[in-house]
């Protein structure tokens, strides 16, 4: 079981530090069986705190160089960061990152043995046309799905930040389809919150969740971690 919190462009460096210290304190006396990774904004990157690992929301596929506004391998290595998030729909749609560029990032991270969280997902229009599975498969084309440090995060674009969530049957069908393509962890993201995390994590094909806005409240996120840990114990 793996739980990821994506802060996007919320929280300052100090707010992030205080959040992590409080979260670590809330989890101090709990035997966490899950892997917990927080992805703060680039200016708030810092070292691992207790049971909480830190990940990078993005990377430019280079050690360093003249790439204004980007973050590179040398910069995340300063904080001993292992996890990198790539392919998020906000970068695909708002920043026009192509499948080819995402593949370039993927291969760069493989070369440097980083832990990749690859986001894929479909629009409402694709879902309504019944083309979801074929579209998701196309987003995975030309990538090494057997890479040892790969996690795939399925996030239907229409569910991100909208409060809308696919039915449990839709989530299970999609996660199982992806699980048939690779033996790596498959997780779900898209309006995951305290009210629905238990039923989502209870799906047999779900290995964890990627949480956006609902993770910004440290009390709520700590409760979600506790729910995940209880489900993990049952599975074990």
List keywords for this structure.
8-stranded parallel β-barrel, 236 residues, 8 strands, 36% helix, single chain, alpha/beta, 9 helices, TIM Barrel
Describe the overall structure.
- The chain has 236 residues and is of the alpha/beta class.
- The protein has a single domain, classed as Aldolase class I (TIM Barrel, Alpha-Beta Barrel), CATH 3.20.20.70.
- The chain contains 9 helices and 8 strands.
- Strands 1-2-3-4-5-6-7-8 form an 8-stranded parallel beta barrel, surrounded by 4 helices.
- Helix 1 packs across helix 9.
- The longest helix has 18 residues.
- The protein is globular, with a radius of gyration of 17 Å.
- The mean pLDDT is 94.
Shape: globular
Q: How would you sum up the major sheet?
A: 8 strands, parallel, barrel
Query: If classified by CATH, what would the architecture be?
Result: Alpha-Beta Barrel
Question: Largest sheet, order of strands side by side?
Answer: 1-2-3-4-5-6-7-8
């Amino acid at each position: 079981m793996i739980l990821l919190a994506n802060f996007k462009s919320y929280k300052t460096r100090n707010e992030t530090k205080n959040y992590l210290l409080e979260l670590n304190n809330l989890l101090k006396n709990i035997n966490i069986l899950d892997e917990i990774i927080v992805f703060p904004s680039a200016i708030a990157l810092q070292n691992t705190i207790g049971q909480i690992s830190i990940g990078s929301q993005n990377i430019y596929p280079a050690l360093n160089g003249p790439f204004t506004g980007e973050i590179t391998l040398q910069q995340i290595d300063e904080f001993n960061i292992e996890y990198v998030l790539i392919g998020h729909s906000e970068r695909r749609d708002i920043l026009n990152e192509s499948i080819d560029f995402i593949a370039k990032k993927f291969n760069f991270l493989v070369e440097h043995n980083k832990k990749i969280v690859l986001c894929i997902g479909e629009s409402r229009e694709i879902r309504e046309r019944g083309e979801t599975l074929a579209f998701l498969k196309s987003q995975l084309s030309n990538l090494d799905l057997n890479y040892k440090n790969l996690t795939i995060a399925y996030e239907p674009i229409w569910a991100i930040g909208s409060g809308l969530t696919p039915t449990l049957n839709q989530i299970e069908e999609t996660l199982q389809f992806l699980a048939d393509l690779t033996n790596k962890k498959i997780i779900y993201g898209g309006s995951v919150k305290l009210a629905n995390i238990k039923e989502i994590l209870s799906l047999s094909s779900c290995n964890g969740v990627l949480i956006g806005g609902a993770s910004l409240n440290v009390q709520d996120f700590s409760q979600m971690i506790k729910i995940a840990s209880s489900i993990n114990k049952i599975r074990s």
